[in-house]
Amino acid sequence: MRASRALAGLLARRLARQANPATEGGALAQLQRGLATQGPFTRAGGAAAAARAPWLVAVAAGLSAGLGLQLVGGGSGEPAECKAAEKPAKLKEFDKDEVAKHRSKETGIWVTYKDGVYDVTKFVEQHPGGAQRLMLAAGGAIDPFWAMYQQHNNEQVKGILEEYRIGRLKGGAAAPVADPYANEPQRLPALIVRSQKPMNSETPMELLAASIVTPNELFYVRNHLPVPQVDPAAYRLRIEGEGVRSLELSLEELKTKFKRHTITATLQCTGNRRNEFNRTGRVVKGLEWEGGSISTAVFTGVRLRDVLLAAGLEDDDPEVQHIQFEGLDADMAGATYGASIEVDKAMSPHGDVLLAYEMNSAPLPADHGFPLRAVVPGVAGCRSVKWLGKIVASSEESHSFWQRRDYKAFGPNTDWDNVDWDAAPAIQAMPVTSQICEPAVGAVVEDDEVTIKGYAWSGGGQGIIRVDVSADGGKTWHNAELQKVPQKRGRGWAWALWQATIPLPKGFTGQLELVCKATDENYNTQPENAAPIWNLRGVNCNSWHRVPVTVQ
Ligand SMILES: Nc1nc2c(c(=O)[nH]1)N[C@H]1C(S)=C(S)[C@@H](COP(=O)(O)O)O[C@H]1N2
Ligand SMILES: [Mo]
Q: Which domain holds residue 2?
């Protein structure tokens, strides 16, 4: 009830905002925009700029989303036509056959984008590992790849490509590429979109703290690729690998042959609150999430353990150390999203890992993995693979980019020029975190007390035992009142919501900082500031959450 009332109000506010672009996104977005334009890389463009912006090079090197093309790549806008004035009046013309001859270092590596022809040989030489994917486009158009990996910050990327321009395509650009995102599901305008294609959107802050269970339509969405369309009647889940006999299960078989289980679990993206790292003054690479890439649902399905047992996997089989998941969402080259978890988590009767076909009593929505997804409670969202196609029992971790070259955290001393991805384990359980959802950043408080609301969650099934809040930047503290679902110790998969009404310093007017920090049942708590936990991918941001407000 509360949630739906809050939703109605929110939608009205959001629509009003959309009608007035000047205020779109509110104060927080304005703050972000301000920060974005202050960033050291805003004026980046071209190879020289790339040298000053190591993350850009890293993306170029294919470290982002497994796709070197992203870097040189970009989306729907025009190529860096702002540079047109600098271009020679007449560009050399090449036909397609000529371009197609340039597919190797020996011949030179050429690609086209729209009607531009680019010799990227030097670029490939400078980024040997990561340019592998770029080689897929060698001798032809890069446009289809960019249609797949549309990045929000691609002007810089196009600027870099422009440095390599050698001419134009005879006969002009090829026919526009069909949009791989043409069949995306409908989404509520209330979601706060951080990237449109693929869809990445946050649950609005005002609604996160409104109910323990997030309505499906408002659950945050984190997609790396277009949403695959799966026919539930033809769908088969495949199980294979070491220590198991290969098995194919239809949705019907999963629903009827295995016991039904239900858990309430919070999923959180490893990048949740990433933008707080950017505000330390040192930019990180990734979607600019605030604190809304986290949500909670009641998931129903079968236990992964039961399915693995049915495939013949034995407890403590020494051959099998990891359970790999493969999604049905694929890129142009047929590479699918994938991840893995440790076999002990997968097989533990207390691990509660589900293969879920229902979310909040409805069939899984398209954005959340229809018809079947893994739900790995207590673990970073990236391991809960959606549109699950295959499960592989293995002595090795998944070989996917997202298991081995992303979703790992390093010290602040590690940057894109010295990162050794193999040196850190993949993030599984995440550290304890909390967030103030109300009042909003920059709110005006006109009372001698303030009511603060938020969420708190910890990974590994560690329930929240306490949330401390402060209205003076952390000098004095009060305990918030917790709202939780019943959960056993060590199996606290769902977040706690919390609320506190606390007095403001007597007679005070001006700026104040509201702060929250949570403690989990292992007595782990949050670090005071984001700077000391800064890491190049901006993951695991869990410092005290701070909200500046004005008291009048
Ligand atoms: N197949 C597939 N599974 C996936 C992803 C994806 O892009 N493809 N994204 C992962 C990430 S990074 C997160 S945080 C969660 C998000 O789940 P949600 O979109 O249901 O909130 O799904 C995970 N599972
Ligand atoms: Mo994620």
A: 1-73
